[in-house]
Amino acid sequence: MHKSIIYLLFIGISSVGLAQGTFKPVKDTVALKAKIDNMSKHTSSIESDFTQVKSLSMLSEKITSKGHFWFLYWEANGQKNNSLRWEYSTPYQYTIVINKDKILIKDESKIKKYDMNSNKVFKEINDIMISCVNGTVLNSNKFKIAYFENDNGYKLELLPNQKNMKESLKKINMYFDKNVSSVIKLEMQEPGDDITTIDFSNKKLNAPIAAEKFTLK
Amino acid sequence: MHRLLLKNLLLSSLLLFIFISCSPTHGYKLAGKEVVTSSHVRPIIDSDSSLLYKAKITFYNQYFSGLILLKQTDTAISHLVFVTELGMKMFDFQIQDNELKLIYVFEPLNKPEVLNLLKNDLKLIFLQHLLNKEACFYKKKGGNTRIYKIYDGKLKNYYLVDPSEKKIKRTIVKKNLLIKEKVDYSYDNSLIINNIKLKHKGLIRLKIELNVLTKNIQ
User: Fold this and answer.
1) pLDDT of residue A2 exceeding 60
2) Closest in B54, B69, B86 to A59, CB measured
3) Residue A7 is inside which H or E element, if any?
4) Alpha-carbon gap, residue A155 to A21, rounded angstroms
5) CATH 2.50.20 holds for B27-217
6) Å between B190 CA and nearest CA of chain A
7) Terminal C-alpha separation, chain A
């Protein structure tokens, strides 16, 4: 199940008009979840471009960042692992790698290593991001999830249950196509109605990814 | 006894000499008092544009980076927003009448000591202690720098300004003769501040560096 959301987030080709039209509650959520599970079982790696737009509501201002994303699911000694690499190229070079419980950041030529649990602020941000990517977001009791659909696709609306999370995050919306083969975007809405949108494009599924992608030199 | 007294006197004189020669106004003469406005010093916050900076903050052994957006939202109000690369907003300060009011802070950062330090440093960086305040100014014969001196409680703030282009070059904060903080500024050809570096001296190990990324004309 934990791979389901990864699959949902990154698989797919076409997104035209996905977020358009009125969304209505999904009647058969069991069937939708089963589709998600089934598809996620066939995904071991994802490579994708992404465009991230931060909309600051009070300032009517948008900050756009672009880059490339890698995900690898792997098993070793009976353990299931997820590795992620976000490589920003715009507005500046910045790479973040999450490998097991380590976070590696390359900013300009500086490389920093963190233990996931050593930095509370960092952990908070990454917990939210990773839980969307590794699927724990659907399984955990941290969110109340509602399922919607329109003619073009589905929308999963995740509302935080925990008080401390509600202070930083109002809602997460995940959009994917009608065949549940394509997740187009991820939206994170903050209490002040600022929204971070991440659009994924040019995805490659199950292509080999070298282990070095999840290290930084 | 006499030798000990002489030794102490020499040491005191040496320290006094060091402190005096370290004074930012050393060699300058008090030339008057004036209310500092945009006609004397170019404000960093521009009413016609929004500025996006890359921010690097080093606090003891911790390193944070992200984006700072600076935007005037109406004639009297500006906002200073810090967003991480991953898109999470860390804080939003509203700037009005030279004061910074906290509008939003990411909950794990919501600690009075962190916020006060941040607020004071941002006020200093963006010249909120200087603009529209009365200051003594110092000049040197033949020199191209004017120094404004302002008291901020127990602190003395010195602003080194290039009057010909109204550019702020450096800010120095002193407390009891010792330098507490320094801010250095550099400009690009279109007179936008493209690099700002703030460094605390002494016990607080905090550095803030801002590098301009874009300027959007409104």
Assistant:
1) no
2) B69
3) helix A4-10
4) 11
5) yes
6) 20
7) 33
Please name the residues in contact with B146: beta carbons below 8 A apart, sequence gap of 6 or more. Answer: B31, B137, B138, B139, B160, B161, B162, B163
- Beta bridge partners, B105, equal B91
Prediction pTM value: 0.81
Query: Chain A residue with minimal CA distance to B79?
Result: A59
CA dist., res. B82 & res. B96, Å (int): 18
Q: How many CA atoms lie within 13 A of A21 on its CB side?
A: 14
DSSP 3-state percent helix, strand, coil across chain A (nearest 5) = 20, 45, 35
Q: What is the pLDDT of residues A37-84, one digit of tens each?
A: 776 777 778 899 999 999 998 888 899 999 999 988 888 888 877 888
CB contact under 8 Å between A58 and B73, yes or no, is yes
Please answer yes or no on whether A125 and B52 come within 8 Å at the CB atom.
no
Q: What are the strands, taking DSSP E only, across chain B?
A: 29-35, 49-59, 62-72, 77-83, 89-96, 99-105, 134-139, 146-152, 155-162, 167-175, 178-187, 193-200, 206-217
Short-list A97, A54, A61, CA closest to A210: A97
Q: How far apart are CA B146 and CA B142, in angstroms?
A: 11
Query: Alpha helices, DSSP H only, in B34-176?
Result: 112-125
Query: Hey, how many other C-beta atoms are within 10 angstroms of the C-beta on B109?
Result: 16
User: A16 CA to chain B: closest CA distance, Å?
Assistant: 24
Min Cα–Cα distance to chain B from A62, Å? 10
What is residue A125's DSSP assignment?
A: H
Are A56 and B86 within 8 A, CB to CB? no
Say how far apart CA A3 and CA A16 lie, in whole Å: 25
User: Would you list the domain boundaries of chain B?
Assistant: 27-217
Which residue type is seen at B72? Q
Closest by alpha carbon to A9, among A189, A149, A131?
A131
| Position A17 confidence tier, pLDDT thresholds 50, 70, 90 | very low
Short-list A3, A215, A188, CA closest to A97: A215
Across the range B83-101, mean pLDDT stands at: 90
- Distance, in Å, from the CA atom of A188 to the CA atom of B87, rounded to the nearest integer, reads 9
CATH numbers and ranges of domains, chain A: 4-214 (2.50.20.10)
Interface residue A68 vs chain B (CB under 8 A) = no
For the purposes of burial, counting CB atoms within 10 Å of the CB of B166, is it exposed (0-12), middle (13-18) or buried (19 or more)?
Answer: middle
Query: Is the CB of B89 less than 8 angstroms away from the CB of A96?
Result: no
Report yes or no for ipTM above 0.90: no
